[in-house]
Amino acid sequence: MTGNNNTHSIILGYIAWAFGIFGAHRFYYGKPITGVIWAFTLGVLLVGWIIDIFLIPAMDEECNQRYRSGPIDYNVTWILFVFLGVFGVHRFFMGKWITGLIWLATGGLVGIGWIYDLLTLNEQIDEANREMAAGYE
């Protein structure tokens, strides 16, 4: 992709790293499998978590190449998800009104939908940004 495609904030990545023994930074950077591994092994007994402090710039650059920027900001969506995700606020922000209302009424489908979004949020944002870009062309 050409031009400025800074989809994820490296500062937010380091903030998520502070909670990285639970895999937060790995989920943020679109690595759900290792995020789950980190969550269940406390960052692979803290060793992988410490190594990740040096890997965050590469993970950030990989996201900038992998995901498309657009009107739906990844950072804002992730912040909304972390603090208000069980209420579906991030889904309203992405323009998913129906599922946002379902999340609001059911507590993120009793947490199961919240876990789904944790694992797929970057892909959902990327897809929405690509659809919006195709609609503008």
From TrEMBL:
The keyword ATP-binding does not apply. Keywords: Membrane, Transmembrane, Transmembrane helix. Its main location: membrane. It is found in: Membrane. It comes from the Bacteria. The chain crosses the membrane at residues 6-24, 36-56, 76-93, 100-116. This is TM2 domain-containing protein. It comes from Blastopirellula marina. The lineage of its organism: Bacteria, Pseudomonadati, Planctomycetota, Planctomycetia, Pirellulales.
